[in-house]
Specification:
Elements: E1 2-8, E2 11-22, E3 25-35, H1 39-60, H2 71-78, H3 91-107, H4 115-122, H5 134-151, H6 158-169, E4 185-187, E5 193-196, H7 203-217, H8 223-237, H9 244-258, H10 271-284, H11 288-305
Antiparallel strand pairs: 1-2, 2-3, 4-5
Helix pairs in contact: 3-4, 3-5, 5-6, 5-9, 6-9, 7-8, 8-9, 10-11
Length: 317
């Protein structure tokens, strides 16, 4: 909620305004507070108006995360899951994947740490060496977050999301593990705004809707589809001041691993296509480009991390 002032002649009128998302539209509830109010009177009016607006918003039952699909649409999306072969990784493959994932997910966000340097930074024998800069600190942080999701035995929650962010950035960002209290936008290379995260006063509504939706719908969708939806909606919300990309890709794999599926590493070289799929989801809710992209990334990941030349049988899940 925010205070709005309107000048009328020599007077000022005050309103308390609450914005919320209803389907694809942003709507506002505006409550008149009074005219030419002194500070004490203004604070009192704001308090009363805030309670009124909260009660009204509950009656409206607005949801930030409206993701309603017909049975046929769900079946169509779920069929994408049949286009991948599911393999369990052995210990060597897990290590290769971890190094590849940590390198690529950080490089997508501009990290200068190279793949061979990632291997050194994650090598237990070299862990006594203190990282030299923020990029190296965040390399280890993302690796710790990945270890966490690989061994996690808990369901998606706001605590899990905050914990992932804290693992990644506890040594580099003061707001590590804390949801933002400011508005954020994403700009392209020309400085143009291509996406605005959910407004700060709607943020907790959006995050709670995400978790509630997941619990209600996880049995309707196959794991790859479910992971894609949660990842894309998380990026749409953009709940942290910075670091949303890395946490979103960890969440993608958190969902996959929770359902006994192997993880996916999104390659730096495919960054632009990745961004385009996110923008298509943000603009129209179209998930199909993301599904097609993730299938390609899964196959590419398997080729990079596989230590066996022979084909393995599918694992039925």
């Amino acid at each position: 909620m925010y205070l709005e002032k309107r000048k009328q002649g020599n007077s000022i009128k005050y309103y308390l305004v609450y914005s919320y998302r209803d389907s694809n539209n942003v709507k506002k509830i505006r409550k008149y507070l009074g005219q030419d109010l002194k500070q004490n009177d203004l604070e009192k009016a704001k308090k009363e108006a805030k309670q009124h607006i909260l009660e009204l918003s509950e009656k409206l039952n607005t949801k930030v995360f409206l993701f309603s699909l017909t049975k046929k649409q769900v079946e169509s999306l779920n069929r994408y899951n049949d286009k991948i072969q599911i393999y369990h990784l052995d210990q060597k493959e897990w290590q290769r994947f971890k190094e590849d994932f940590v390198y690529n997910t950080n490089a997508i966000e501009g990290s200068t740490v190279q793949l061979h340097e990632v291997k050194d930074l994650l090598n237990e024998k070299l862990n006594e060496k203190k990282p030299a800069n923020f990029d190296e600190l965040e390399t280890r942080g993302v690796a710790q977050a990945f270890d966490y999701i690989r061994n996690a035995n808990e369901e998606l929650s706001l605590q899990v999301i905050k914990k992932l962010h804290e693992f990644c950035f506890k040594e580099t960002k003061q707001f590590a593990g804390k949801f933002r209290n400011v508005n954020v936008v994403i700009r392209n290379s020309r400085g143009e705004v291509i996406h605005a995260g959910v407004e700060k006063f709607n943020l907790m509504f959006a995050l709670n809707d995400l978790v509630v939706w997941y619990k209600k719908n996880k049995s309707r969708f196959r794991p790859l589809v479910l992971a894609a939806i949660i990842h894309n909606q998380f990026e749409y919300i953009h709940p942290f001041q910075d670091g949303n990309g890395r946490v979103g890709r960890l969440l993608l794999n958190f969902i996959l691993l929770e359902h006994n599926y192997p993880p996916i590493s999104i390659s730096l070289e495919d960054r632009q296509e990745y961004y385009q799929t996110l923008q298509q989801y943000s603009n129209s809710g179209n998930l199909k480009p993301t599904m097609q992209f993730l299938i390609k990334q899964y196959k590419k990941t398997l080729k990079k991390v596989s230590t066996k030349k022979t084909n393995r049988k599918n694992v039925v899940t």
